[in-house]
Design goal:
Layout (H helix, E strand, L loop, with lengths): L1 E4 L6 H10 L4 E4 L10 E4 L5 H11 L1 H10 L4 E4 L1 H4 L4 E2 L4 E2 L6 E5 L6 H8 L6 E9 L18 E7 L1 E5 L5 E7 L1 E9 L2 E4 L7 H12 L12
Parallel strand pairs: 1-2, 1-3, 3-4, 4-13, 5-7
Antiparallel strand pairs: 5-6, 7-10, 8-9, 8-11, 11-12, 12-13
Length: 225
């Protein structure tokens, strides 16, 4: 059974519709206890990092997510959910969940972005719309199981102003180019994340959700930090 975390900061409806289209059973709840028996969990989100962390701490989902990740069961963060699994976000100087070492930085603070934006005639922030994602070979690991059946270079739908900057680049399974390289698919062991919205990314996005929904726990041997 798939669990969906509802912490008042999620793009819940579109995720629900995608799973219903795929005919996948799920449990949606604001209470961590309702999801304790799920064998995989989706952690969606849109909005601001500080508000998200406040809601996670208020509901107890912060501890739930850490414990669930430690259990070895598949966890999938989407958009804001892909960011707050790291240590720290520059957005309101927010301490995050710390599941994977790294920081979340604003586009304007990334080396080379201003120069690339000027050269391109202004790259708007937020990065919004469809961008091509190129897949990277994982160091010492097989191809990311989340991406099975999805061609490298596929376009996915993005909406974000902050960028994942992991300490270990080996956890980056795919990146987009928006003046700078934008880590877009993250994989570490049983933790998966996409900066883009698979539930809003047409057929290939649905393939990613299908892959997650049918993921074998033995496939979760991603890059090590």
């Amino acid at each position: 059974m798939i669990g969906i975390i509802d912490y008042n900061a999620g793009n819940i409806k579109s995720v629900q519709r995608a799973l219903e289209f795929l005919k996948k059973d799920y449990v949606l709840s604001k209470n961590p206890l309702d999801l304790k028996n799920c064998d995989r969990v989706i952690f969606p989100g849109v909005g601001e990092a500080k508000y998200a962390m406040e809601q996670l701490e208020k509901t107890g989902f912060d501890s739930f997510i850490r414990d669930f990740a430690a259990s070895g069961k598949p966890l999938f963060g989407i958009c804001l959910g892909s960011q707050v699994i790291f240590d720290f976000s520059e957005e309101s100087d927010t301490d995050c969940l710390g599941l994977i070492p790294g920081k979340i930085r604003h586009f304007s603070n990334l080396p080379g972005f201003s120069e690339a934006s000027e050269k391109a005639g202004s790259l708007k922030i937020p990065h919004m719309g469809w961008s091509s994602v190129t897949f990277a070979a994982q160091s010492g690991a097989e191809e990311c199981p989340l991406l099975k059946g999805v061609p490298s270079g596929t376009d996915f739908y993005f909406v974000h102003s902050y960028v994942i900057q992991p300490d270990n680049p080996a956890v980056i399974a795919g990146s987009a180019d928006y003046g700078v390289q934008v880590p877009s698919v993250i994989w570490k062991d049983n933790i998966f994340a996409t900066q883009f919205h698979p539930e809003k990314s047409a057929a290939h996005g649905l393939t990613i959700l299908q892959n997650f929904a049918t993921l074998d726990a033995d496939s979760c041997g991603g890059a090590s930090c």
